[in-house]
Amino acid sequence: LNDPQILTKRLKEPMIRKNGKNSPLEVVSWDEAIKFVADNFKKIKEKWGPDSFLGAASARGPGNEAGYITQKFTRAVMGTNNIDHCARICHAASVAGSRQTIGEGAMSLSIPEIENAEVIFNIGYNAAASHPIVARRIVKAKEKGAFIICADPRITETARISDLHLQLKGGSNVALVNSLANVIISEDLIDHEFVKFHTKGFDEFWEIVKEYTPEYAATITGLSPEDIRFTARKYASSKHSVILWGMGITQFSQGVETVKCCCSLAMLTGNFGRPSCGTGPVRGQNNVQGTCDMGDLPDVYPGYQNVTDPEIQAKFEKAWGVKLSNKVGIQLTRVPEFVIHEKDPAKRIHAYYITGEDPAQSDPDLEEIRETLDQVDFVVVQDIFWNKTAEHADAVLPATAWGEHDGCYTSSDRGFQRVRKVVEPQGNVLPDWEITCRIATAMGYPMHYNNTEEIWNEMIDLCPKFTGATYEKMERQGSVQWPCWDKGPQDKGTMFLHKDGHFATPDGIGILKTSPYHPPTEVENEEFPLSLCTVREVGHYSVRTMTGNCRMLRNLEDEPGWVEMSLEDCDKLGLREGEIVKVLSKRGSVYTRCKPTERVKQGAV
């Protein structure tokens, strides 16, 4: 946190632009900064209404308690459900697709269970680069005899240890999983008892997937019909089959559809409700699962309780003492639509409160995002380091980092874990939850908590499936996996979901769902003959909003980085290893180095 080799210094004092957008940021006291932010939020709400505000929560260091406070501020103080976070561009598709089929948007199994699986189907997921701890479990499973399948356009580390690599064409995931379902049903590999008593929607599901024979899917995916059939048979052969996926399937226009079909594959084969089987959307940021759990989403309160449900709304209104909106909020990726593309000022977003996020570096279409940030009337950035988004901010509020405050995170497999303050923060900084509470209080809605445990206790009392996960229980067990219904010691949490085929849907029945395959909206053409696939590597995490600030990690992947290209494409274009190239799309360009490799298929970079 205080490493002298950090390339960007810590934010240590609050700063505001006292004289408008074009004036410089000036260091001020906390009292002045809080008043400045509160006054502007209040004016914008009074002039343009509650829905003129949007909050972006952090899935990183602040923790679950701060996430709860962020969404409470947005809903109770600003009066809107316009709250979102980075899951929107990573695993929001996992939440949506899983909830529509099995009722829960999280891993159905625990990470330790992976090593006892008999078949592991990795689709769009390279654990070696994304989650080394999960990768070790996969390797242990292989050592115990598990059959590993990897579906990925690249030859990744996971592909190299796999027994079968399905090197499909990028963007063809729906066609592949539909075809796997086709084979499982056509060859009568389904678990008839499980499907009969624990699922519904089979006829509608079959109407879609019956078209996706392996021969037809092969024309879309580039795979052989034989490999598709073998994969389906192998997956259906075990009652301890696991599907793991990452952003290789969720960061597509049909991400939700792919997730729905992955969940349906597990239901068709009866691979739910026991150890070492089920589905695993393995989350990215350290607390992206927790930020979803805390309700930092436009359609749900904490605990995945729908904002459109009158009984749920009444419960939160009583607890928070204010009238709440039942209108689903605006998604983070739609901010440009409601700023630069919205002609009616009454429908625009006029205030944007960003905590621990860097949309000017990490959101799609950066040119449009940066223009959007300049057009928003009032932007507040709350973070630990100066970043690209702070350049567009009207107020910059310095927060504590992990290790400088107490709280808890949620692991990918639903485990609540305590984090503790171990060092004193340097500079005039405050915990995220305290900053937001001060703004709320200055706006006339008192929010006073003495510590994070008070916040946590308020949250779990409102969320039945989290109620038993007390600080004391986390302390005693090390981790508590939700659902945990009872505060008593007898309820230790839940290692795997959907026991005995009882799903988290309203009637306890799983819903078989999928959709027809639709090709990507943008395909290769004469002007842009190559397709781009973004990847995660060990040296840098995603778009380097964090790791790019560390000199040691930057030295691992020296600027200006590299783009992997097939040997055939390099020969065709006359490119050599290390040569500087310009990678261009209709949305922008970047200069980087050419890296010829056999890991990438011809026509892809």
Task: Please provide a written account of the structure.
The chain folds into three domains: 15-74 and 308-497, Rossmann fold, CATH 3.40.50.740; 92-282 and 506-511, Dimethylsulfoxide Reductase, domain 2; 547-597, Barwin-like endoglucanases (Beta Barrel). Helix content is 34%, strand content 15%. It has 22 helices and 22 strands. The strands form six sheets. The protein has a seven-stranded mixed β-sheet with strand order 2-1-15-14-13-3-4. The longest helix has 19 residues, at 30-48. The chain is globular, with a radius of gyration of 24 Å. The chain starts with 14 loop residues before the first strand and ends in an 8-residue tail after the last strand. The model has no long low-confidence stretch (mean pLDDT 92). Pfam families: Molybdopterin, Molydop_binding. Residues 530-605 form the Molybdopterin dinucleotide-binding domain. GO terms for molecular function: 4 iron, 4 sulfur cluster binding; formate dehydrogenase (NAD+) activity; metal ion binding; molybdopterin cofactor binding; NADH dehydrogenase activity. Keywords: 4Fe-4S, Iron, Iron-sulfur, Metal-binding, Oxidoreductase.
